[in-house]
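Input set for joint prediction.
Command: fold jointly, output C-alpha coordinates.
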Amino acid sequence: MAAVTATTAGETTIREPGPLQRAGITLAHVLSHPLGAIGFVLVVLIVATALFAPWIAPYSPTAISVKERLADPSLSHLLGTDQLGRDLFSRVIVGTRTAMTVALTALSVSIAIALPLGLIAGYGPRWLDAIMILVFDSVSSLPMIMLGLAVVVLLGPGVSTVILVIVLYSVPSYARLVRTQTLSLKTRDFIKAEQVMNAGTPRILFRHLLPNVIGPLVILACLDISTVITLEAGLSFLGLGVKPQIPSWGNILSDGFAVIRNSAVPVIAGGAPLILATVGFTFFGEALRDALDPKLNPERKP
Amino acid sequence: MSATPALIEADRLSVQVPTGRLPFSQKAPLSILINVSLSIRPGEIVCMVGESGSGKTTFGRALLGLIKPSAGSITLDGAALPDFSNRSFRAVRRQAALLFQDPLSSFNPRQRIGAMIAEPRRIARSGSTRMQDIAALARQAGLSERLLARFPHALSGGQARRAAVARALSVVPRLIVADEPTAGLDVSIQGGVLNLFLDIREQHDTAFLLITHNLSVVRHVADRIVILYLGRVVESGPAAEILASPRHPYTRALLESEPVPDPARRRAEPPVIGEVPSIAARPPGCEFHTRCRHAQARCRSEAPRLADGPGDRQVACHFPLPEPQPAARGSLRLVSN
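C-alpha coordinates >
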Protein backbone atom coordinates (compact mmCIF):
# COMPACT_ATOMS: atom_id res chain seq x y z
CA MET A 1 0.00 0.00 0.00
CA ALA A 2 1.46 3.32 -0.94
CA ALA A 3 0.63 6.46 0.90
CA VAL A 4 0.10 9.53 -1.20
CA THR A 5 1.40 12.69 0.42
CA ALA A 6 0.99 16.18 -0.91
CA THR A 7 4.19 18.20 -0.86
CA THR A 8 4.44 21.95 -0.54
CA ALA A 9 4.97 22.33 -4.27
CA GLY A 10 1.56 20.78 -4.81
CA GLU A 11 2.91 17.70 -6.59
CA THR A 12 2.16 14.34 -5.09
CA THR A 13 4.76 11.73 -4.34
CA ILE A 14 4.15 8.12 -3.58
CA ARG A 15 5.92 6.70 -0.58
CA GLU A 16 6.76 3.00 -0.33
CA PRO A 17 6.12 1.62 3.15
CA GLY A 18 9.16 0.23 4.95
CA PRO A 19 9.32 -3.39 6.13
CA LEU A 20 8.16 -2.52 9.66
CA GLN A 21 5.25 -0.53 8.31
CA ARG A 22 4.41 -3.40 5.99
CA ALA A 23 4.38 -5.83 8.94
CA GLY A 24 2.13 -3.40 10.80
CA ILE A 25 -0.32 -3.23 7.89
CA THR A 26 -0.39 -7.03 7.63
CA LEU A 27 -0.98 -7.36 11.39
CA ALA A 28 -3.80 -4.83 11.22
CA HIS A 29 -5.41 -6.96 8.49
CA VAL A 30 -5.04 -10.11 10.59
CA LEU A 31 -6.56 -8.39 13.63
CA SER A 32 -9.45 -6.90 11.66
CA HIS A 33 -10.81 -10.41 11.21
CA PRO A 34 -12.41 -11.77 14.42
CA LEU A 35 -11.01 -15.29 13.97
CA GLY A 36 -7.64 -13.79 13.08
CA ALA A 37 -7.69 -11.75 16.30
CA ILE A 38 -8.55 -14.85 18.38
CA GLY A 39 -5.78 -16.76 16.61
CA PHE A 40 -3.28 -13.98 17.17
CA VAL A 41 -4.04 -13.77 20.91
CA LEU A 42 -3.76 -17.54 21.31
CA VAL A 43 -0.48 -17.64 19.37
CA VAL A 44 0.99 -14.82 21.48
CA LEU A 45 -0.12 -16.61 24.68
CA ILE A 46 1.37 -19.94 23.58
CA VAL A 47 4.64 -18.45 22.39
CA ALA A 48 4.99 -16.39 25.59
CA THR A 49 4.25 -19.45 27.71
CA ALA A 50 6.88 -21.43 25.82
CA LEU A 51 9.46 -18.63 26.20
CA PHE A 52 8.89 -18.02 29.92
CA ALA A 53 7.95 -21.59 30.91
CA PRO A 54 10.57 -22.05 33.65
CA TRP A 55 9.46 -18.85 35.36
CA ILE A 56 5.71 -19.56 35.06
CA ALA A 57 5.83 -23.17 36.25
CA PRO A 58 5.52 -23.27 40.06
CA TYR A 59 7.24 -26.68 40.42
CA SER A 60 9.83 -28.65 38.54
CA PRO A 61 7.89 -30.64 35.92
CA THR A 62 9.96 -33.74 36.71
CA ALA A 63 9.96 -33.54 40.51
CA ILE A 64 8.36 -36.76 41.83
CA SER A 65 6.43 -36.60 45.08
CA VAL A 66 5.02 -40.06 45.85
CA LYS A 67 2.82 -39.03 48.74
CA GLU A 68 0.98 -36.47 46.60
CA ARG A 69 0.27 -38.76 43.63
CA LEU A 70 -3.01 -38.28 41.76
CA ALA A 71 -3.94 -35.28 43.90
CA ASP A 72 -7.07 -33.37 42.88
CA PRO A 73 -6.75 -29.79 41.63
CA SER A 74 -6.14 -27.44 44.54
CA LEU A 75 -4.52 -24.06 45.19
CA SER A 76 -1.07 -25.63 45.62
CA HIS A 77 -1.50 -27.82 42.49
CA LEU A 78 -3.75 -25.94 40.07
CA LEU A 79 -4.38 -29.02 37.92
CA GLY A 80 -3.54 -31.63 40.54
CA THR A 81 -0.75 -34.19 40.11
CA ASP A 82 -0.20 -37.27 37.99
CA GLN A 83 0.42 -40.85 39.09
CA LEU A 84 4.01 -40.00 40.09
CA GLY A 85 2.97 -36.92 42.02
CA ARG A 86 4.38 -34.47 39.46
CA ASP A 87 2.60 -31.11 39.29
CA LEU A 88 0.40 -31.24 36.17
CA PHE A 89 0.17 -27.48 35.70
CA SER A 90 3.97 -27.23 35.58
CA ARG A 91 4.11 -30.13 33.15
CA VAL A 92 1.55 -28.49 30.85
CA ILE A 93 3.48 -25.19 30.93
CA VAL A 94 6.85 -26.77 30.21
CA GLY A 95 5.15 -29.09 27.68
CA THR A 96 4.26 -25.95 25.70
CA ARG A 97 7.94 -25.31 25.34
CA THR A 98 8.53 -28.88 24.12
CA ALA A 99 5.71 -28.57 21.61
CA MET A 100 6.94 -25.21 20.26
CA THR A 101 10.55 -26.35 20.11
CA VAL A 102 9.63 -29.45 18.15
CA ALA A 103 7.23 -27.59 15.85
CA LEU A 104 9.45 -24.61 15.06
CA THR A 105 12.65 -26.63 14.65
CA ALA A 106 10.97 -29.27 12.50
CA LEU A 107 9.27 -26.71 10.28
CA SER A 108 12.36 -24.52 9.82
CA VAL A 109 14.46 -27.55 8.95
CA SER A 110 11.75 -28.73 6.54
CA ILE A 111 11.63 -25.32 4.83
CA ALA A 112 15.41 -25.17 4.63
CA ILE A 113 15.51 -28.57 2.91
CA ALA A 114 12.36 -28.24 0.81
CA LEU A 115 13.20 -24.83 -0.69
CA PRO A 116 16.36 -25.84 -2.59
CA LEU A 117 14.89 -29.24 -3.51
CA GLY A 118 11.72 -27.68 -4.90
CA LEU A 119 13.64 -24.96 -6.76
CA ILE A 120 15.90 -27.54 -8.38
CA ALA A 121 12.98 -29.82 -9.30
CA GLY A 122 11.07 -26.92 -10.80
CA TYR A 123 13.90 -25.15 -12.57
CA GLY A 124 16.22 -28.05 -13.39
CA PRO A 125 16.05 -30.55 -16.22
CA ARG A 126 12.90 -32.60 -16.70
CA TRP A 127 14.49 -35.96 -15.89
CA LEU A 128 15.69 -34.68 -12.52
CA ASP A 129 12.22 -33.30 -11.81
CA ALA A 130 10.69 -36.70 -12.66
CA ILE A 131 13.07 -38.52 -10.29
CA MET A 132 12.50 -36.04 -7.47
CA ILE A 133 8.72 -36.16 -7.83
CA LEU A 134 8.91 -39.97 -7.72
CA VAL A 135 10.88 -39.82 -4.47
CA PHE A 136 8.55 -37.20 -2.93
CA ASP A 137 5.50 -39.28 -3.88
CA SER A 138 7.04 -42.47 -2.51
CA VAL A 139 7.78 -40.83 0.84
CA SER A 140 4.37 -39.17 1.12
CA SER A 141 2.63 -42.43 0.28
CA LEU A 142 3.99 -44.04 3.47
CA PRO A 143 1.53 -43.80 6.35
CA MET A 144 2.78 -41.32 8.90
CA ILE A 145 2.72 -43.75 11.82
CA MET A 146 4.59 -46.44 9.84
CA LEU A 147 7.25 -43.90 8.97
CA GLY A 148 7.46 -42.85 12.62
CA LEU A 149 7.71 -46.44 13.84
CA ALA A 150 10.48 -47.23 11.37
CA VAL A 151 12.53 -44.18 12.35
CA VAL A 152 12.01 -44.77 16.09
CA VAL A 153 13.09 -48.40 15.75
CA LEU A 154 16.26 -47.24 14.02
CA LEU A 155 17.14 -44.26 16.21
CA GLY A 156 15.21 -44.72 19.45
CA PRO A 157 12.64 -42.28 20.81
CA GLY A 158 13.56 -38.70 21.59
CA VAL A 159 12.96 -35.10 20.61
CA SER A 160 15.35 -35.27 17.66
CA THR A 161 13.64 -38.43 16.37
CA VAL A 162 10.27 -36.70 16.46
CA ILE A 163 11.75 -33.76 14.58
CA LEU A 164 13.25 -36.10 12.00
CA VAL A 165 9.93 -37.87 11.47
CA ILE A 166 8.13 -34.56 11.02
CA VAL A 167 10.80 -33.33 8.60
CA LEU A 168 10.58 -36.53 6.55
CA TYR A 169 6.83 -36.11 6.49
CA SER A 170 6.70 -32.40 5.57
CA VAL A 171 9.59 -32.02 3.11
CA PRO A 172 7.82 -33.77 0.19
CA SER A 173 4.70 -31.62 0.39
CA TYR A 174 6.68 -28.38 0.88
CA ALA A 175 9.05 -29.20 -1.94
CA ARG A 176 6.07 -29.93 -4.17
CA LEU A 177 4.62 -26.49 -3.41
CA VAL A 178 7.95 -24.80 -4.18
CA ARG A 179 8.28 -26.83 -7.38
CA THR A 180 4.81 -25.86 -8.61
CA GLN A 181 5.48 -22.18 -7.88
CA THR A 182 8.85 -22.39 -9.61
CA LEU A 183 7.35 -24.05 -12.67
CA SER A 184 4.92 -21.19 -13.13
CA LEU A 185 7.49 -18.49 -12.34
CA LYS A 186 10.19 -19.78 -14.68
CA THR A 187 8.16 -18.96 -17.77
CA ARG A 188 7.63 -15.39 -16.57
CA ASP A 189 9.41 -12.58 -18.39
CA PHE A 190 11.57 -11.47 -15.46
CA ILE A 191 13.22 -14.90 -15.33
CA LYS A 192 13.64 -14.86 -19.14
CA ALA A 193 15.21 -11.41 -18.73
CA GLU A 194 17.73 -12.86 -16.28
CA GLN A 195 18.57 -15.60 -18.77
CA VAL A 196 19.18 -13.05 -21.50
CA MET A 197 21.46 -11.15 -19.09
CA ASN A 198 23.48 -14.38 -18.80
CA ALA A 199 22.67 -14.74 -15.11
CA GLY A 200 23.98 -17.97 -13.62
CA THR A 201 21.54 -20.63 -12.44
CA PRO A 202 22.31 -20.10 -8.70
CA ARG A 203 21.57 -16.39 -9.09
CA ILE A 204 18.25 -17.06 -10.81
CA LEU A 205 17.32 -19.72 -8.23
CA PHE A 206 18.24 -17.93 -5.04
CA ARG A 207 17.99 -14.23 -5.83
CA HIS A 208 15.00 -14.22 -8.12
CA LEU A 209 12.92 -17.35 -7.69
CA LEU A 210 13.38 -17.90 -3.95
CA PRO A 211 12.00 -14.54 -2.73
CA ASN A 212 8.95 -15.13 -4.87
CA VAL A 213 8.18 -18.63 -3.56
CA ILE A 214 9.05 -18.26 0.12
CA GLY A 215 5.90 -16.31 1.06
CA PRO A 216 3.34 -19.03 0.31
CA LEU A 217 5.65 -21.60 1.87
CA VAL A 218 5.90 -19.75 5.18
CA ILE A 219 2.12 -19.41 5.31
CA LEU A 220 1.70 -23.13 4.63
CA ALA A 221 4.20 -23.85 7.42
CA CYS A 222 2.27 -21.55 9.75
CA LEU A 223 -0.92 -23.50 9.02
CA ASP A 224 1.04 -26.71 9.60
CA ILE A 225 2.26 -25.78 13.09
CA SER A 226 -0.98 -27.12 14.55
CA THR A 227 -0.66 -30.38 12.60
CA VAL A 228 2.91 -30.77 13.75
CA ILE A 229 2.04 -30.16 17.41
CA THR A 230 -0.70 -32.79 17.13
CA LEU A 231 1.77 -35.12 15.43
CA GLU A 232 4.31 -34.72 18.21
CA ALA A 233 1.60 -35.33 20.82
CA GLY A 234 0.37 -38.36 18.88
CA LEU A 235 3.82 -39.90 18.58
CA SER A 236 4.51 -39.20 22.27
CA PHE A 237 1.13 -40.70 23.21
CA LEU A 238 2.13 -43.89 21.39
CA GLY A 239 5.46 -43.87 23.20
CA LEU A 240 7.31 -43.13 19.94
CA GLY A 241 7.96 -39.49 20.68
CA VAL A 242 9.79 -37.63 23.40
CA LYS A 243 10.94 -39.65 26.45
CA PRO A 244 8.27 -40.07 29.19
CA GLN A 245 10.06 -37.95 31.80
CA ILE A 246 10.20 -34.94 29.48
CA PRO A 247 6.92 -33.06 29.79
CA SER A 248 4.99 -32.95 26.54
CA TRP A 249 1.26 -32.67 25.86
CA GLY A 250 1.33 -36.12 24.29
CA ASN A 251 3.02 -37.65 27.32
CA ILE A 252 0.54 -35.97 29.70
CA LEU A 253 -2.32 -37.36 27.58
CA SER A 254 -0.75 -40.81 27.54
CA ASP A 255 -0.15 -40.84 31.31
CA GLY A 256 -3.62 -39.43 31.91
CA PHE A 257 -5.18 -42.09 29.72
CA ALA A 258 -3.81 -44.78 32.06
CA VAL A 259 -5.60 -43.25 35.06
CA ILE A 260 -8.72 -41.97 33.29
CA ARG A 261 -10.93 -44.16 35.57
CA ASN A 262 -9.65 -42.23 38.61
CA SER A 263 -9.74 -38.71 37.19
CA ALA A 264 -10.38 -37.00 33.86
CA VAL A 265 -8.29 -33.98 34.82
CA PRO A 266 -4.92 -35.21 33.42
CA VAL A 267 -6.44 -36.07 30.02
CA ILE A 268 -8.11 -32.68 29.86
CA ALA A 269 -4.90 -30.98 31.00
CA GLY A 270 -3.03 -32.60 28.11
CA GLY A 271 -5.78 -32.22 25.54
CA ALA A 272 -6.98 -28.66 26.12
CA PRO A 273 -3.70 -26.87 25.26
CA LEU A 274 -3.42 -29.08 22.19
CA ILE A 275 -6.85 -27.95 21.02
CA LEU A 276 -6.11 -24.29 21.85
CA ALA A 277 -2.79 -24.41 19.96
CA THR A 278 -4.37 -26.09 16.94
CA VAL A 279 -7.20 -23.58 16.82
CA GLY A 280 -4.89 -20.61 17.45
CA PHE A 281 -2.30 -21.41 14.80
CA THR A 282 -4.92 -22.41 12.23
CA PHE A 283 -6.90 -19.19 12.68
CA PHE A 284 -3.74 -17.09 12.68
CA GLY A 285 -2.31 -18.86 9.62
CA GLU A 286 -5.52 -18.48 7.65
CA ALA A 287 -5.84 -14.82 8.54
CA LEU A 288 -2.20 -14.27 7.57
CA ARG A 289 -2.76 -16.00 4.24
CA ASP A 290 -5.77 -13.81 3.51
CA ALA A 291 -3.94 -10.65 4.58
CA LEU A 292 -1.01 -11.38 2.26
CA ASP A 293 -3.04 -12.58 -0.71
CA PRO A 294 -3.38 -9.65 -3.14
CA LYS A 295 -6.36 -11.34 -4.79
CA LEU A 296 -8.33 -11.42 -1.54
CA ASN A 297 -7.06 -8.02 -0.54
CA PRO A 298 -7.48 -5.61 -3.43
CA GLU A 299 -5.98 -2.66 -1.57
CA ARG A 300 -2.62 -4.34 -1.47
CA LYS A 301 -0.56 -4.74 -4.61
CA PRO A 302 1.52 -7.91 -5.09
CA MET B 1 25.04 -7.17 -49.46
CA SER B 2 27.28 -4.53 -48.03
CA ALA B 3 30.92 -4.13 -47.18
CA THR B 4 30.28 -3.85 -43.44
CA PRO B 5 30.39 -7.33 -41.92
CA ALA B 6 27.20 -8.40 -40.19
CA LEU B 7 27.00 -8.26 -36.41
CA ILE B 8 24.61 -11.15 -36.28
CA GLU B 9 23.21 -13.28 -39.00
CA ALA B 10 20.39 -15.82 -38.93
CA ASP B 11 20.44 -18.30 -41.76
CA ARG B 12 17.24 -20.22 -42.56
CA LEU B 13 16.21 -20.24 -38.93
CA SER B 14 13.19 -22.43 -38.18
CA VAL B 15 11.27 -22.97 -34.99
CA GLN B 16 8.92 -25.89 -34.44
CA VAL B 17 6.87 -26.80 -31.43
CA PRO B 18 5.68 -30.33 -30.76
CA THR B 19 1.91 -30.67 -30.72
CA GLY B 20 1.24 -34.17 -29.37
CA ARG B 21 1.43 -34.40 -25.60
CA LEU B 22 2.76 -37.95 -25.60
CA PRO B 23 6.23 -38.88 -26.79
CA PHE B 24 6.21 -40.67 -30.17
CA SER B 25 2.96 -38.92 -30.91
CA GLN B 26 1.93 -39.14 -34.55
CA LYS B 27 1.04 -35.47 -34.81
CA ALA B 28 3.42 -33.37 -36.85
CA PRO B 29 5.11 -30.51 -35.01
CA LEU B 30 3.81 -27.00 -35.68
CA SER B 31 6.11 -24.72 -37.61
CA ILE B 32 6.18 -21.25 -36.10
CA LEU B 33 9.07 -19.95 -38.18
CA ILE B 34 10.23 -21.35 -41.50
CA ASN B 35 13.63 -20.57 -43.01
CA VAL B 36 13.87 -16.99 -41.82
CA SER B 37 17.18 -15.41 -42.80
CA LEU B 38 18.22 -12.02 -41.57
CA SER B 39 21.47 -10.19 -41.04
CA ILE B 40 21.93 -7.14 -38.87
CA ARG B 41 24.95 -4.88 -39.30
CA PRO B 42 26.35 -2.74 -36.50
CA GLY B 43 24.29 0.41 -35.99
CA GLU B 44 21.52 -0.78 -38.26
CA ILE B 45 17.83 -0.63 -37.31
CA VAL B 46 15.95 -3.56 -38.77
CA CYS B 47 12.21 -3.67 -38.36
CA MET B 48 10.40 -6.96 -38.36
CA VAL B 49 6.80 -6.41 -39.34
CA GLY B 50 3.84 -8.75 -39.40
CA GLU B 51 0.45 -9.44 -37.95
CA SER B 52 -0.12 -11.09 -34.60
CA GLY B 53 0.94 -14.72 -34.84
CA SER B 54 3.33 -14.12 -37.73
CA GLY B 55 6.29 -15.28 -35.61
CA LYS B 56 7.94 -11.89 -35.02
CA THR B 57 8.31 -12.34 -31.28
CA THR B 58 9.41 -15.94 -31.74
CA PHE B 59 12.17 -14.83 -34.07
CA GLY B 60 13.47 -12.28 -31.57
CA ARG B 61 13.48 -14.88 -28.82
CA ALA B 62 15.01 -17.58 -31.01
CA LEU B 63 17.85 -15.23 -31.92
CA LEU B 64 18.72 -14.98 -28.20
CA GLY B 65 18.09 -18.66 -27.50
CA LEU B 66 15.04 -18.20 -25.30
CA ILE B 67 13.26 -20.44 -27.78
CA LYS B 68 15.40 -23.19 -29.27
CA PRO B 69 15.54 -23.08 -33.06
CA SER B 70 14.88 -26.43 -34.71
CA ALA B 71 16.98 -25.77 -37.81
CA GLY B 72 19.22 -23.17 -39.37
CA SER B 73 22.24 -21.38 -38.02
CA ILE B 74 23.19 -18.20 -36.22
CA THR B 75 26.44 -16.43 -36.96
CA LEU B 76 27.84 -13.87 -34.55
CA ASP B 77 30.70 -11.65 -35.79
CA GLY B 78 31.42 -14.14 -38.55
CA ALA B 79 31.57 -17.18 -36.28
CA ALA B 80 28.69 -19.64 -36.38
CA LEU B 81 27.28 -20.90 -33.10
CA PRO B 82 28.34 -24.56 -32.78
CA ASP B 83 24.90 -25.57 -31.56
CA PHE B 84 21.78 -24.10 -29.98
CA SER B 85 22.67 -24.90 -26.36
CA ASN B 86 22.39 -22.28 -23.65
CA ARG B 87 26.17 -22.28 -23.43
CA SER B 88 26.48 -21.28 -27.09
CA PHE B 89 23.87 -18.58 -26.78
CA ARG B 90 25.82 -16.99 -23.94
CA ALA B 91 28.08 -15.44 -26.58
CA VAL B 92 25.08 -13.84 -28.30
CA ARG B 93 23.54 -12.72 -25.02
CA ARG B 94 26.77 -11.00 -23.96
CA GLN B 95 26.35 -8.67 -26.96
CA ALA B 96 22.59 -8.28 -26.79
CA ALA B 97 19.78 -6.96 -24.66
CA LEU B 98 16.10 -7.79 -24.97
CA LEU B 99 13.28 -5.33 -24.34
CA PHE B 100 10.15 -7.28 -23.57
CA GLN B 101 6.75 -6.45 -24.98
CA ASP B 102 5.47 -5.93 -21.43
CA PRO B 103 8.33 -4.16 -19.62
CA LEU B 104 6.60 -4.38 -16.26
CA SER B 105 6.62 -8.17 -16.31
CA SER B 106 10.33 -8.19 -17.09
CA PHE B 107 11.16 -6.88 -13.60
CA ASN B 108 11.30 -9.05 -10.51
CA PRO B 109 8.23 -7.87 -8.55
CA ARG B 110 10.17 -8.07 -5.29
CA GLN B 111 13.18 -6.00 -6.28
CA ARG B 112 13.53 -2.26 -6.55
CA ILE B 113 13.98 -0.66 -9.97
CA GLY B 114 17.47 0.59 -9.08
CA ALA B 115 18.64 -2.92 -8.22
CA MET B 116 17.17 -4.28 -11.43
CA ILE B 117 18.95 -1.63 -13.53
CA ALA B 118 22.24 -2.55 -11.84
CA GLU B 119 21.59 -6.26 -12.40
CA PRO B 120 23.43 -6.65 -15.76
CA ARG B 121 26.51 -4.99 -14.24
CA ARG B 122 26.38 -7.28 -11.22
CA ILE B 123 26.10 -10.32 -13.46
CA ALA B 124 28.88 -9.19 -15.79
CA ARG B 125 30.92 -8.01 -12.76
CA SER B 126 31.83 -4.92 -14.72
CA GLY B 127 30.79 -1.32 -14.37
CA SER B 128 29.91 0.61 -11.28
CA THR B 129 26.82 -0.25 -9.27
CA ARG B 130 27.10 2.81 -7.06
CA MET B 131 23.87 4.71 -6.56
CA GLN B 132 24.94 7.85 -8.41
CA ASP B 133 26.10 5.86 -11.45
CA ILE B 134 22.84 3.94 -11.62
CA ALA B 135 21.02 7.27 -11.31
CA ALA B 136 23.06 8.61 -14.24
CA LEU B 137 22.10 5.56 -16.26
CA ALA B 138 18.45 6.13 -15.44
CA ARG B 139 18.67 9.81 -16.48
CA GLN B 140 20.26 8.73 -19.75
CA ALA B 141 17.14 6.63 -20.43
CA GLY B 142 14.94 9.55 -19.38
CA LEU B 143 13.92 7.95 -16.10
CA SER B 144 13.66 10.15 -13.04
CA GLU B 145 16.09 8.93 -10.41
CA ARG B 146 13.54 9.21 -7.63
CA LEU B 147 11.82 6.20 -9.22
CA LEU B 148 14.83 3.99 -8.56
CA ALA B 149 13.67 3.18 -5.02
CA ARG B 150 10.27 2.03 -6.23
CA PHE B 151 9.02 -1.46 -6.85
CA PRO B 152 8.02 -2.26 -10.45
CA HIS B 153 4.26 -2.18 -9.82
CA ALA B 154 4.53 1.49 -8.82
CA LEU B 155 5.71 2.52 -12.32
CA SER B 156 3.56 3.64 -15.23
CA GLY B 157 3.86 1.98 -18.64
CA GLY B 158 6.18 4.64 -20.02
CA GLN B 159 8.33 4.67 -16.89
CA ALA B 160 8.61 0.87 -16.97
CA ARG B 161 9.66 1.07 -20.63
CA ARG B 162 12.37 3.61 -19.79
CA ALA B 163 13.51 1.52 -16.83
CA ALA B 164 13.83 -1.46 -19.17
CA VAL B 165 15.90 0.65 -21.59
CA ALA B 166 18.10 1.83 -18.69
CA ARG B 167 18.68 -1.80 -17.75
CA ALA B 168 19.49 -2.66 -21.36
CA LEU B 169 22.09 0.15 -21.42
CA SER B 170 23.61 -0.96 -18.12
CA VAL B 171 26.21 -3.00 -19.99
CA VAL B 172 26.20 -1.31 -23.39
CA PRO B 173 24.90 -3.88 -25.89
CA ARG B 174 25.79 -4.06 -29.57
CA LEU B 175 22.31 -5.33 -30.36
CA ILE B 176 18.99 -4.49 -28.78
CA VAL B 177 16.06 -6.69 -29.63
CA ALA B 178 12.96 -4.64 -28.86
CA ASP B 179 9.62 -6.45 -28.91
CA GLU B 180 6.81 -3.99 -29.63
CA PRO B 181 8.69 -1.13 -27.95
CA THR B 182 5.82 1.28 -28.40
CA ALA B 183 2.95 -0.98 -27.34
CA GLY B 184 0.67 0.62 -24.81
CA LEU B 185 2.30 4.04 -24.92
CA ASP B 186 0.88 7.43 -25.83
CA VAL B 187 1.99 8.73 -29.19
CA SER B 188 4.10 11.46 -27.56
CA ILE B 189 5.87 8.92 -25.36
CA GLN B 190 6.27 6.55 -28.33
CA GLY B 191 8.26 9.28 -30.08
CA GLY B 192 10.38 9.73 -26.95
CA VAL B 193 11.25 6.05 -26.85
CA LEU B 194 12.14 5.96 -30.55
CA ASN B 195 14.31 9.08 -30.23
CA LEU B 196 16.00 7.41 -27.29
CA PHE B 197 16.80 4.45 -29.57
CA LEU B 198 18.24 6.78 -32.20
CA ASP B 199 20.39 8.48 -29.53
CA ILE B 200 21.66 5.12 -28.33
CA ARG B 201 22.59 4.17 -31.87
CA GLU B 202 24.30 7.52 -32.33
CA GLN B 203 26.36 7.10 -29.16
CA HIS B 204 27.22 3.43 -29.17
CA ASP B 205 26.64 2.23 -32.76
CA THR B 206 24.11 -0.20 -31.31
CA ALA B 207 22.05 -2.19 -33.79
CA PHE B 208 18.33 -2.73 -33.25
CA LEU B 209 15.91 -5.43 -34.20
CA LEU B 210 12.53 -3.77 -33.72
CA ILE B 211 9.62 -6.16 -33.70
CA THR B 212 6.48 -4.23 -34.38
CA HIS B 213 3.24 -3.99 -36.25
CA ASN B 214 3.21 -0.23 -35.88
CA LEU B 215 4.05 1.18 -39.30
CA SER B 216 4.65 4.70 -38.04
CA VAL B 217 7.50 3.25 -35.97
CA VAL B 218 8.87 1.68 -39.13
CA ARG B 219 8.64 4.95 -41.06
CA HIS B 220 10.36 6.82 -38.26
CA VAL B 221 13.43 4.71 -37.65
CA ALA B 222 13.80 1.68 -39.92
CA ASP B 223 16.84 1.18 -42.13
CA ARG B 224 15.64 -2.17 -43.34
CA ILE B 225 12.32 -3.98 -43.16
CA VAL B 226 11.51 -7.67 -43.02
CA ILE B 227 7.88 -8.63 -43.53
CA LEU B 228 6.74 -11.91 -42.01
CA TYR B 229 3.60 -13.78 -42.92
CA LEU B 230 2.78 -17.04 -41.12
CA GLY B 231 6.40 -17.43 -40.07
CA ARG B 232 7.92 -16.89 -43.49
CA VAL B 233 9.67 -13.86 -44.91
CA VAL B 234 7.51 -12.55 -47.75
CA GLU B 235 9.47 -9.40 -48.47
CA SER B 236 12.60 -7.69 -47.20
CA GLY B 237 14.78 -4.78 -48.23
CA PRO B 238 15.73 -1.19 -47.53
CA ALA B 239 12.98 0.61 -45.64
CA ALA B 240 12.64 3.59 -47.99
CA GLU B 241 12.22 1.39 -51.06
CA ILE B 242 9.70 -0.95 -49.49
CA LEU B 243 7.64 1.87 -48.03
CA ALA B 244 7.64 3.68 -51.37
CA SER B 245 6.93 0.68 -53.57
CA PRO B 246 5.98 -2.60 -51.93
CA ARG B 247 6.35 -5.54 -54.29
CA HIS B 248 4.48 -8.18 -52.33
CA PRO B 249 0.70 -7.75 -52.27
CA TYR B 250 0.76 -8.46 -48.53
CA THR B 251 3.23 -5.67 -47.87
CA ARG B 252 1.07 -3.31 -49.86
CA ALA B 253 -1.98 -4.44 -47.96
CA LEU B 254 -0.19 -3.76 -44.68
CA LEU B 255 0.80 -0.28 -45.81
CA GLU B 256 -2.69 0.46 -47.09
CA SER B 257 -4.30 -0.76 -43.89
CA GLU B 258 -2.58 1.98 -41.96
CA PRO B 259 -5.27 4.41 -40.87
CA VAL B 260 -5.08 7.75 -42.67
CA PRO B 261 -6.23 10.72 -40.61
CA ASP B 262 -8.11 12.24 -43.52
CA PRO B 263 -11.75 11.36 -44.29
CA ALA B 264 -11.36 12.56 -47.88
CA ARG B 265 -8.85 9.78 -48.54
CA ARG B 266 -11.06 7.04 -47.21
CA ARG B 267 -10.46 3.65 -48.81
CA ALA B 268 -12.96 2.20 -51.21
CA GLU B 269 -12.19 -1.46 -50.55
CA PRO B 270 -10.45 -3.35 -47.75
CA PRO B 271 -6.74 -3.93 -48.39
CA VAL B 272 -6.93 -7.61 -47.47
CA ILE B 273 -9.81 -10.02 -47.43
CA GLY B 274 -10.53 -12.71 -44.87
CA GLU B 275 -8.74 -13.87 -41.78
CA VAL B 276 -5.16 -14.99 -41.14
CA PRO B 277 -5.05 -18.76 -41.77
CA SER B 278 -4.00 -21.00 -38.89
CA ILE B 279 -0.42 -22.20 -38.91
CA ALA B 280 -1.84 -25.62 -38.07
CA ALA B 281 -3.58 -25.64 -41.48
CA ARG B 282 -1.33 -23.77 -43.85
CA PRO B 283 -2.87 -23.09 -47.28
CA PRO B 284 -1.23 -24.97 -50.17
CA GLY B 285 0.83 -23.04 -52.69
CA CYS B 286 1.47 -19.43 -51.77
CA GLU B 287 0.21 -19.14 -48.22
CA PHE B 288 -1.13 -15.66 -48.86
CA HIS B 289 -3.33 -16.67 -51.81
CA THR B 290 -6.43 -17.03 -49.64
CA ARG B 291 -6.35 -13.31 -48.93
CA CYS B 292 -4.67 -11.94 -52.04
CA ARG B 293 -6.66 -9.95 -54.57
CA HIS B 294 -4.17 -10.81 -57.31
CA ALA B 295 -4.16 -14.57 -56.70
CA GLN B 296 -4.16 -16.78 -59.80
CA ALA B 297 -4.24 -20.52 -60.41
CA ARG B 298 -0.49 -20.89 -60.02
CA CYS B 299 -0.58 -19.25 -56.57
CA ARG B 300 -2.94 -21.91 -55.30
CA SER B 301 -0.67 -24.83 -56.20
CA GLU B 302 2.93 -23.66 -56.24
CA ALA B 303 4.75 -21.95 -53.37
CA PRO B 304 6.83 -18.97 -54.49
CA ARG B 305 10.50 -18.83 -53.53
CA LEU B 306 12.06 -15.80 -51.88
CA ALA B 307 13.79 -14.32 -54.91
CA ASP B 308 16.57 -11.73 -54.85
CA GLY B 309 16.39 -8.40 -56.56
CA PRO B 310 16.26 -5.76 -57.56
CA GLY B 311 19.14 -4.46 -55.45
CA ASP B 312 18.98 -5.48 -51.81
CA ARG B 313 15.35 -6.44 -52.02
CA GLN B 314 13.80 -9.87 -51.77
CA VAL B 315 10.25 -10.88 -52.44
CA ALA B 316 8.37 -14.17 -52.36
CA CYS B 317 5.63 -13.75 -54.96
CA HIS B 318 4.87 -15.24 -58.36
CA PHE B 319 3.46 -11.96 -59.58
CA PRO B 320 5.22 -9.19 -57.69
CA LEU B 321 3.75 -5.74 -57.98
CA PRO B 322 5.38 -3.62 -60.68
CA GLU B 323 8.69 -1.88 -60.25
CA PRO B 324 8.58 1.67 -59.00
CA GLN B 325 7.89 3.52 -62.24
CA PRO B 326 6.22 6.90 -62.42
CA ALA B 327 3.11 5.39 -64.01
CA ALA B 328 2.89 2.59 -61.46
CA ARG B 329 3.29 5.01 -58.59
CA GLY B 330 0.53 7.13 -60.06
CA SER B 331 -1.83 4.20 -60.25
CA LEU B 332 -0.97 3.28 -56.69
CA ARG B 333 -1.97 6.71 -55.54
CA LEU B 334 -5.22 6.35 -57.46
CA VAL B 335 -5.96 3.18 -55.50
CA SER B 336 -5.49 4.91 -52.23
CA ASN B 337 -7.53 7.93 -53.27
